[in-house]
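Request: Mind sharing a record?
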Amino acid sequence: MQVSAMERRISTLTLLCLVLSGVGALDVNIPKEVYEYARGDNITLPCSFKPRDPNPSLVIISWSAEGAQANAKETLILTYYSHSEVIDTKSLYEGRATLDVDVPKGKADLKLSSITLAENKVFECRVQIPGDDEGKPADTARVVVLVAPSTPICKIEGKAEYYQNINLTCKSEEGSPPPTYTWDSRDVRNVPRAPLPRSTDKGGILSLFNISKEASGFYICTSANKIRSATCNITLAVMPPSMNIGSTAGIIGGVVAALIALIIIIYCCCCRKKKKEEEYAMGVRGEEYSDKEPPRNGESRHADGQEDNHGYDDRARSPGDRSDRYEERRERNYENRMDVDNRGRDYDDRRSDYDDRRSDYDDRRSDYADRRSDYDDRRSDYDDRRSDYTERRDRYSDRNERYDDEGRYEDDRRYNDDRRDRRNDDDRYDEPYDDRDPDRPPVPANKPPRKDYDV
């Protein structure tokens, strides 16, 4: 299709008008699209603008932030009014956000102090001038707050048993930009090894499938971003499959049943042994229950040519004789049973007598203890008397000493000497005993003469 010359002229004029109108329009510009800062820094986001009129009467400058996620809500930070030079700062950024503004120079820089991860957003600088709304009234830039990844946390999800599927997870609570995760593996000897063939590593999750003993070892996770990295490690020990509840309960039940059976067997053996001991004590023997009588000296067990058929021959005896013989045997058995009962009673009597003797022994032992306590009492009394005697002896010694001091000993000695002299002068002591007393026996001829002793 051919285009007429008139239509070409109209298109050219329209394009020229648009270009001419854009030359004098408002232009807002932020130099860079992305700014990276560390957490806690004080930052400045530059913004410049060029109005169509060099001296506008009113300029309104505003800064806002919007989250990087989709459908994130826009947050207004501050607004500047040139006619009153007033800055209206929102409460969320009060004390942290200021505006470095110079309208004639077209300067509107935003300053933020102590930035956090909350400032990880897209910031917009917008300039409004009445009558100058053409061109580019706003521009945006993204702020990336850099945060070193925190020490990751390693976990095991699943049972570390043969032929099971498990996941090894690694996650850092902080990190901006978001950290990347890598896994390294070492065997049980701490020797580096290649990744296991049946494994996948994605987003910090290491998946191990159909594990075996070879999967045991040490696993190290590294979390890293632009600033630095951090690591965590975990030890994996693959064990044989554990027994389920049913098999465990069965084994426990079998063990309990075996213990019960063993206790019953032991109890029965003890009862049987105790019964044999009682029978032995009562004098019970197997031959006492036999209905046969032992043969006497010179007699045979087969009397009168009869067969040993419990003492009688069924062919030689009539039914009446057999009945009598049965009654006799029954009476003998009854007598034997009575004899056994009597021996049992005798055993009970002997046992009661033994208990009585044992009680008498205990009584004698208690009496001995009483006598021993009496002996101890008498001995203590003797010690008391002995101490009294010692005290009296001491007093007697004191009196002797006082007696010697007073000179009485010499008087007693002279008195004894006088008595001895008078006794020597008395002839009666030389006469025989029969003259002095006719009733006494005569003095033997070989009797030695009497000697005088000092009193």
Notes: Residues 28 and 49 are 4 Å apart (CA to CA). Residues 13-22, 286-292, 297-316, 427-436 have pLDDT under 50 and may be disordered. The radius of gyration is 67 Å.
